[in-house]
C-alpha cells in the first residue's frame, strides 16, 4: 500500500480509539515501510506519543540506529514543533505531510523549526498531499468533541 | 536530593555510558520527584530519547495522565525545539534548566518555541541554574570526541 494511504488508515484507527486522528509511516529509500504508528497520547498517558514520534522511535529500533538517514516520513498532518525537532534529529530525507496546520504546525507555521539558522538538518518537504482526506477526518473528530 | 543535583548526577551517568551528558527530573508541585532520566539516544537507537522526553514519558505513565499540570522539569541543558514542544504539550508549570545552548537550544535560541503566538502553553522559565557544573560536563564530553 502507498505510504500515505496507510497513514490515512492509521489516522482512522486513531479516531476510532478516541485519539486525535493522525497517522504516520516511515519508509526507506526504496519505499518499503520500516515502521508505522498512530497517535496514542491518551492510551499511553504520554504527551509525546504523537504518530510521528512513535513511528520514528519504531524505525530507529527496527534499523538499529538513531539516525534514519535516507528514510522518508509520511504523516497526515503538518508536524508540530516537537515532531519537527525529532525529524531534524533523525536526519530524515523527506517529510511528506497531508493537511496544513496553522494552529499547531511547526513546519510552515509557528516555530518553523527547519527555517532556523541553527537547525542542523532540513529534509525535503512536501505538504498538502491528500490534504482533503486528512482534513475530513480531523474535522469530524473535533466536531464530535465540541 | 535537590532535583537539579539529581539531574546533574544523571548527566554524569549519561557521559559514563557514552551518551551526551544531559539529565532531567520531573518533580511535582511539592518538590517530590515523579520521574527522572538521562539521555539514551544511542543505547535505544531512538532519535527522540533525550533526557527530557524520557522523563516526561515516565512522569505521564506514573501519574496516569498525558498532562503534567503543576509539575516542574529540571534539566541540565536548555531544551531543544523537540523537547520544548513536548514541554508545551505536557503543560508543565516550570522549566528550570542549566546551561544555555546557543547552537541546539529551542527556548532562548533557534525556534524559541514558547515565544510563538501559536504556542498553546508557556511554562515559567528559569535558565542558568548551576550552569557551570553542566557546562563542565558537556565540554569534557565533546572534547573527548573530537
How is this structure best described in words?
- With 146 residues, chain A is an alpha/beta fold.
- Helix content of chain A is 38%, strand content 18%.
- The first copy, chain A, has five helices and five strands, in the order αββααβαββα.
- Chain A has a five-stranded mixed sheet.
- The mean pLDDT of chain A is 97.
Pick out the low-confidence regions of chain A: none
Largest interface: A-B, 45 and 45 residues
Level of helix content of chain A? 25-40%
Order of helices and strands of chain A: HEEHHEHEEH
Task: Output mean pLDDT of chain A.
Answer: 97
- Which radius of gyration of chain A do the C-alpha atoms yield? 14 Å
Largest sheet of chain A: 5 strands, mixed
In angstroms, what separates the terminal alpha carbons of chain A? Answer: 34 Å
Instruction: Give the neighbour order of strands across the main sheet of chain A.
Output: 2-1-3-4-5
Multimeric state: homodimer
Beta-strand residue fraction of chain A: 15-25%
Tally of DSSP helical segments of chain A: 5
Strands of chain A, total number: 5
Structure keywords:
globular, alpha/beta, 5-stranded mixed β-sheet, 146 residues, homodimer
Short description, anyone?
The structure is a homodimer of 146-residue chains. By secondary structure, the first copy, chain A, is α/β, with parallel strands linked by helices.
